[in-house]
Design goal:
This protein has nine helices and two strands. The chain is mostly helical and about 230 residues long. The chain has two domains: about 35-70; about 80-205, Cytochrome c-like domain (Cytochrome Bc1 Complex, Chain D, domain 2). Strands 1-2 form a two-stranded antiparallel sheet. The longest helix has about 35 residues, at about 35-70. The protein is elongated. The N and C termini lie far apart (about 115 Å).
Length: about 230
């Protein structure tokens, strides 16, 4: 009996062996990498994130900077060191909780406070203190509306200038001189300097606001109180 072919045939495929694509071993590694489903999901997620960042963050920033550069008037002057200190005091004391520094583009705002706010006005103020409530009046056109003395009196005792005011006083920004007079300290002077900065470049070239006219006509108390004090 011939047993020459009793053993397994070397050419026959092994039972249970996985079929192999003859060409798969020759595919580039990056092709095999992309064929994995999780890789496609990862690349899609990263691509969406990058696109969103550019579309919602980078491009608007570039557009805003261009608009600020184009619209800034020639007479614009940057804040002085004292005005910057006043801006710091304004933030520290939480003035934005009750005051806005943003004139809306509505007839009532324009009539009461002057031209609507523009982006270039805030290029020196970061973070911007636009505020969300007007328990007190908007301050973005405060430059030239009242004297420094009025501001000091109002900061020390708000009801001395506006009897119906609900604004708290800031007596810690003042000290008593030898002769008994109350004098503003460095923070009070800086804060008033910052208030006089707000709208300075607007008021020098634009129309005078109703509140500014009232102040210079001796009716500052009325203009700061009444309908402007509560909104």
């Amino acid at each position: 009996m011939n047993h020459e072919h009793d053993g397994p045939d070397p050419a026959a495929p092994e039972v249970g062996a996985k079929a192999v694509d003859p060409g798969s071993d020759h595919d580039p590694r990056w092709v095999r990498f992309l064929e994995r489903g999780e890789t496609i999901m990862l690349l899609g997620g990263v691509g969406s994130l990058v696109f969103s960042f550019v579309a919602l963050g980078v491009l608007p920033l570039i557009s805003l900077r261009g608009e600020v550069t184009r619209s800034t008037p020639e007479e614009f002057t940057a804040m002085t060191a004292q005005e910057e200190q006043g801006f710091t005091v304004y933030k520290r004391e939480g003035c934005a909780y009750c005051h806005t520094t943003f004139v809306r583009d509505t007839p009532s705002d324009v009539r009461r406070f002057g031209p609507p706010a523009e982006a270039w006005e805030y290029q020196d103020q970061y973070p911007q203190q636009w505020g969300t409530r007007r328990i007190g009046p908007d301050l973005s056109r405060e430059s030239g509306a009242r004297s420094d003395g009025w501001h000091y009196a109002h900061l020390y005792d708000p009801r001395s200038t506006v009897p119906q005011s609900i604004m708290p006083g800031y007596p810690w920004m003042f000290s008593e001189a030898v002769d008994g007079t109350i004098v503003p300290d460095e923070d009070a002077e800086a804060l008033v300097a910052y208030l006089n900065y707000l709208g300075r470049d607007i008021s020098e070239s634009g129309p005078q606001t109703e509140r500014g006219r009232n102040a210079m006509n001796g009716h500052a108390g009325t203009s700061h109180g009444g309908t402007d004090e509560h909104e």
